[in-house]
Amino acid sequence: MISMRNVQKHFGDLHVLRDIDIEIPRGQVVVVLGPSGSGKSTLCRTINRLEPIDSGEIRIEGQLLPEEGRDLARLRSDVGMVFQSFNLFAHKTILQNVTIGPIKVRKQSKADAEKQSLGLLERVGVEAQKDKYPAQLSGGQQQRVAIARSLAMGPKVLLFDEPTSALDPEMVSEVLDVMVSLAKEGMTMVVVTHEMGFARKAADRILFMADGAIVEDTDPESFFTAPESDRARDFLSKIL
Ligand code: ADP
Ligand code: MG
Question: Is residue 7 within 8 Å of 56, Cβ to Cβ?
Fold first, then answer.
C-alpha cells in the first residue's frame, strides 16, 4: 500500500530522513516511535506530500506520488492525516466540517455527503454534536470529528501524528478507542504516538526512528521486550 525507497530529505544541513526503505502492506498498523526531533512527523508529512523529498521514491498502491496539481488533491483524499492540533474549521458546524471534503473534492451531492457524514459521526460517537461549532466540543470530541472528517474522503491510508498529545489525559482513551476499532476493521494506518499501551495493543509493527533513520523495524513484542539497539533501549528506559 505504501512503499518508500531510498528516501532522503534535508532541511538545509540537517539530514532529516536518511535512506528510508519501507513497504507497508494493506491493513497493516504501523506505530512510529522515537525521540523528539528524530524525523517522525517529517516521515508522515512526506507520505501525503506535505513535504517534498530530495531523492528516492514514494508510492501509494504502486503509484508514484504526484508533484502537483489535480493528482495531488486526489492523493490527499487517498492518504488522510490526523494532526495533534485538530485543525477543524472554526466557523463551520461539526457536520459541515465532515461534509465539506466529500462535497468539494469528491463532488458528492449535499444529501449524500450528509448521510454518509452522519454515519461517520455516529461511528466516532459524536453525532449528537452535529450542529455545534468546534469550540463547543471537548478536545477528545474534536479529535474524533477530525478522524470522521478524514474517513469521509474514503482514504486508503490514514496517518496520525501524535493525535492524543494535545488532549487532557481523561480524553486520550476515547480517541485511542476509535483508532483501535479502525485498526480492527483493517484500515492501513501509520501512527506516531507516545501511547505505549496503544502501540502494544494495536500495532502490527513498530518502526523506531533516531536521527532521521529507521533504527528498528520489528513487531511490538520484540521491540518492547528485546530492543536491539542502544538507542531504543535508552528510549524505552525513559518512557516505561
Ligand atoms: P519528530 O516528529 O520526530 O519530533 P520532526 O520530523 O518534526 O521530528 O523534525 C525532525 C528534525 O527536522 C528536527 O530537528 C526539526 O527541528 C527539523 N525540522 C522539522 N521541520 C522543519 C522545517 N520545516 N524546517 C527546518 N527544520 C525542520
Ligand atoms: Mg513530531
Answer: yes
In this prediction, residue 41 carries a pLDDT of: 97
User: Which strands sit side by side in the sheet containing 157-161, from one edge to the other?
Assistant: 79-82, 157-161, 188-192, 29-33, 205-210, 213-218
Nearest CA to ligand 1 atom 22: 11
CA of 20 to the centre of ligand 1 (A): 16
Q: Is ligand 1 within 6 A of the CB of residue 42?
A: yes
Report how far residue 86's alpha carbon sits from residue 140's, in angstroms, rounded to the nearest whole number. Answer: 9
Which amino acid is it at 190? V
Q: What is the mean pLDDT of the chain?
A: 94
Q: How far is C-alpha 125 from the geometric centre of its chain's CA atoms?
A: 20
The complex scores an ipTM of 0.98
- Which is the closest atom of ligand 1 to the Cα of 209? 3
Q: What is the pLDDT of residue 70?
A: 74
| pTM of this structure | 0.94
Sign of CA dihedral 51, 54, 56, 62: positive
